[in-house]
Amino acid sequence: MKVVFVHTDFRIYWPSRLMVLNHFLHKHNIAFDVIEIAGAGSPYWFATGEADYQTFWHCLFKDKKIEELPAGSAGKAVRRKLDVLMPDIVFAGAIAFPSGAACVRWANENRKKCVVFDDARLKDVPRRWYVNFIKRRVYSGVDAIFCPAPAWNETFRYFGFLDDQIFHGLNVVDNNFWEIKQAKYSKPKTRENYFLTIGRYVAKKNFIVLLKAYRRYVNRATNPRHLVIVGDGPDNDSLKSATLAMDLQNLVHFHPFLSQTELRSFYQNASWFILPSRYGETWGLVVNEAMASGLPVIVSDQVGCASTLVKDCVNGYTFSPENEEELATILLKAATIPEEDRENMGLKSQEIISDWNLDRFCTGVNEALHFVTDRDKRNPDLLGRLVMKVWKGRYRPV
Questions:
Q1: Beta pairing partners, 38
Q2: Shortest CA distance to 296 belongs to which of 277, 276, 270, 320?
Q3: Which of 50, 52, 46, 47 is nearest to 34 (CA)?
C-alpha cells in the first residue's frame, strides 16, 4: 500500500508529524510520500527551511509562494505528481485550497481513496450558502475526514459524513520538545513570571483587546506582571502605537517571530499563556505548546481548542474575546493566585495535553487508513463529479 499526504505547504508543526508518521507507516510496510505545492510564503513564511526534503518529500515549487501560482496550474502540478506516485490512499488538505481540490478530483478519476484533513468548523469560517453547497458536492467524493477532535463532528455531519467516517488527532505538536527544560538558554529581556502571548499581528488574533484589558489590569494591580507579545504582521505598528497611547511601554514587550528553540525559553520563563483570538482561530496550536511547557492558559472561548483543552479553574480560564472587563478580571485573578496553585494548574495542563502528542496523530491516520481500506470507494453523484472538474480551489493569504 502507498499513502501520500498533500497540502499547500507543510511548515512549522508539520515536519515533526510527518517524520514520525513516515517511521510509523514503514513499520507497517506502508510506503509514504509527501507533496507540498509551494516552498515559500504562507502564514508561516518565517519557518522557511524547516522541511527536510528527503526522498519521500516532494516540493513542486520550492521558490514560489502559493499566492503567486494560479489555482489551475497548482492543481495540474499536483495531479501530475500523483500520476507518477500513484498512491492507493491520498490524504489531502482542505478542499477550499488547490491542493485539496486537485486531490479529490484525482482520487475520483483514478478510483483511489481520499481522506481530507481540515480543522475549520462552520462557525469558525462563515461562508455563503452556495459555497457550502459546492463543498458538500465535492465532499460527496471524499471517503473520510481527519480533524482535530469530536467538537468538529457536527461540522462534518453537515457536510454529509457519518460519525464512523470522522477521525480525530490532527492538531498535535511534539510535546516532548516543549517539556524539555534547557540547562542553558537566553532569557527574554524582561523579568520572569510574565503573561505571554504569541501570534501573527492580524485582526483575528485580537491583541488590541488584550492590550485594553491589560491596561485595566495594570490600573488595579499593585505590582503588575509584564506582558510579552511574540510575533509580527501587518498590525505591528498599530499595536505598538496603542501601547504608547495607553502608557504601557514599560510593561509590554514586543519580540519578533522566534525559532522553536528560542520560543521554548519564553514559555519556560512565563507564568501564564494568553490566546485572545476571535472567530477564525480554528485551533490554536500555541496553546498545545504552552500546556506542554507546563503553563496554565487563558484562552478566548472562540478559539477552536478551548472546549477541548481548557478546563475552567483546572488548567486555566476561558473568556469572551469581546469583553475587556472579563479578561482584566481574569488577569488580576491569575496574577494573585498562590504560586503553588498556579503550578498545579500548569501540571494539569501537562496532564491534559499528554494525550495530544505525535502518536495521537499517527493513531488517527492509521484508523482512517483501516476504515477506507475496508470499504468501497465513495462515489460522488453526477453534480458532484461536474463540480470537481470545475472547482480548482483558491488561496487567500491571511
A1: 61
A2: 270
A3: 52
Query: How far from the centroid of its chain's Cα atoms is residue 199's Cα?
Result: 12
Q: Express each pLDDT in 111-136 by its tens digit.
A: 999 999 999 999 888 778 888 888 89
Residue 19 identity (one-letter amino acid): M
Task: Give pLDDT tens digits for 269-327.
Answer: 999 999 999 988 999 999 999 999 999 999 999 999 999 999 999 999 999 999 999 99
What domains can be seen in the chain, in order of their start residue? Answer: 2-172+357-390 (3.40.50.2000), 175-353 (3.40.50.2000)
What CA–CA distance (Å, rounded) separates 13 from 173?
6
**Whole-angstrom Cα distance, residue 163 to residue 110?**
26
Burial 235-253 (b: 16+ CB within 10 A, else e): beeebeebbeeeebeebbb
SS3 87: coil
Q: Reduced to 3 DSSP states, what percent helix, strand and coil does the chain have, rounded to the nearest 5?
A: 45, 15, 40
| Residue 244 DSSP code | H
Please report which residue ranges of the chain form alpha helices under DSSP H.
Answer: 14-27, 71-85, 98-109, 129-139, 153-158, 175-179, 207-220, 236-245, 260-269, 285-292, 306-309, 324-336, 339-353, 358-373, 382-390
Distance CA 367, CA 375 (A): 13
Per-position b or e across 102-114, b if 16+ CB within 10 A of its CB: bbbbbbbeeebbb
Nine-digit cell at 103?
Answer: 486531490
Task: Check: pTM over 0.90? Answer yes or no.
Answer: yes
Lowest mean pLDDT among 71-75, 258-262, 316-320, 330-334: 258-262
3-state secondary structure at position 226: coil
Tell me the residue length of the chain. 398
Listed in sequence order, the residues at least 6 apart from 290 whose beta carbon sits closer than 8 Å to its beta carbon are 196, 267, 270, 273, 297, 349
| pLDDT band at residue 50 using 50, 70 and 90 as cut-offs | very low
What's the average model confidence in pLDDT over 383-392? 88
